[in-house]
# Entry
Amino acid sequence: MGRRPYDAVVIGSGAGGGPCAYGLSVRGRRVLLLEAGPRYDPYKDYHLHEDDWEIRGFPDRERGVYTFGEGQPLREDLGRLRSRNRAHGLFNPSPRRRYLRYFNVKGVGGSTLRYQGEAHRLHPKAFRIKSIYGVGNDWPIGYGDLLPYYKTAERVIGVAGPDADPYHPGRVPLPLPPHRLSYASRIVEKACARMGLRLIPNRVAILSRGYDGRPSCNYCNGCSYGCPIKDKGSIDVTFIPKAEATGRCRVVEGAHVFRLDVRKGRVREVLYYDREGKERAARARVFVVACGAVETPRLLLNSGIANSSGQVGKNFMETLLWHSTALHPMRLDSYRGIPIDSEVLDYLFPGAGLPFASGFRLFATSGVALGPVNFALMYLRGWGKGFQREMERSFGHTLSVGGIGEFLPNRDTFVEIDDKVKDRYGIPVARIHAFLGENEIRLLEFMSTKCREILEASGADEIVEEISSYDLFAATHVFGTCRMGKDPGTSVVDPSCRSHDIPNLFIADASVFPSSGGGSPPSLTISAIGLRVAEYISREVLI
Amino acid sequence: MKRLTRRWFLKVLGALGLSSLLPGPSNAASPPLTRDTEALAEAIMPGAKDLGVDERAAALMLKRPETARIFFSGMRGLERYSRDRYGRPFHSLEEREREAVLRWMASLPRERIERLFFARYRRAVIAYYYTCPEVWKRLKYNGPPQPKGFMDYHLPPGGGSG
# Structure
């Protein structure tokens, strides 16, 4: 590799930045990929083979620092939407919505290190919810614009799933066949059928057979603990090794980017602290920011750039989640399998007649208590021999279903800079404000009803836990803070994800999403956007 | 059977520079710490002592100064209550008496240090207890998840034909 300046600096190595670096380097471009976190070695760093794997969890070496705004007042008439647990009662007994955490991962591969491997194309209608439902925003691009990049991402990652489903037109076969449903999901499948719903195998970046030098999944279900055998297609084991193999992509871990320096209307260099805390700068012809919908606006706002629209940080959208867990009279051992092996898409973009606009999807899931430790701590009260007897009676009996729905942007939901709180480098952190609108509440009511009905139809006895976005902010998928659009007055980047203000600045993460996708997991779309940005830069900018 | 000792406490605390937190052995008011710690773990999860869970749970609480202080304050409260109510230290109590002490700790107001201590120590004991493969056998749990995985995931538990 030649010396600096690079053709491109990509900031962030997750679902968007990794594929973007790959797309640039396979086209002969020299790329510097800066990642704030460390590089994990799946064989050495993850703990799923140890007896105390549940206590150790994912080996986060560094967590992001954020602050949160005021919690939304909760309504007394919506008690049925509160998060609760049999052993511990209400998760949030306060009268206001509580911010728990924005779940992201600092590390080479970003949040895909912990994701559950869902790999969806957005539904074609997801790009046009304003036109269809009169709410939210349309995208300035459509399904067809992303289609070739979806295909590339599916091929590189190794997506398994059905060749076709009734909800996505014109699908081509995926690289790998779908996984068989788990024993527990087959019970949910029958219940859904009785309700007139169709549970279909999920599309996942989890290998159903050996692929591209990686082994087939062995169904340990530990995706969120870090996959130690590399069958999960996280970005660190797919796009990034391929980018590095070109000899044109250099990955620098532990690089805390704090400013983009703009001179004469162009980004001249990126400034960051390296692993030793030394300030460094890197120059290139093009800069791509791919830090996610919280860190990307933070970087732009702290740099004071790309915000002539005033929209940087606005239009924040979060994960709208409902999740119910019950005990089933039969032992199911639902901790076996993959985290979300099947889904119901009947409500993804339904027609008129429902009490909400846009849609949601339902899914069968292994839940969060994947082993005895979490089961005991989450669902049982007390101590002593009675506790142990109850554990022996009920462990392995959980059955969980959930739903994720569209979140419409609103004026009260945004990301800004918190000048009073700084990270360890003295850089102001992001403050998150998140409020649910009436459409979100109606969606939660409908999702919660459906989840309870499915569990009842499955023969489950007692619901032992319900987790709800109504009273808890615990977002994994976040979107929209640098949205894409044709109008420079109302959007941050153009349809090619290029800053309206700065011609050599691009954004390649979920912050460009004008809408949240109706509950579909965003990672594959983020990767498709990263690949599309790379091709555009190669074709139109680095000429 | 491995037993908790004062030397063990000193070793763990010494490594963290927290030795001064340990009550002195000659102080008549100091709790019989090692025996009570074992007995409390055993009351929370019978069998915990034989599995070394008491030591692991205590070590977790001694890791940081703030939780170490909660640990010692809580143990002191446990000792005081046992002596006041039954005239004996906790480890000398009958099973039903120990149960009553646990119920007392769990029912205290949230701000009481004994309640905070009990919540944390109970959590730690239960967590480490259920990391033990000996216990998993009774649950018919075939973990940990790796390296074997659960290749029978599509079948009923126990490998039936489903």
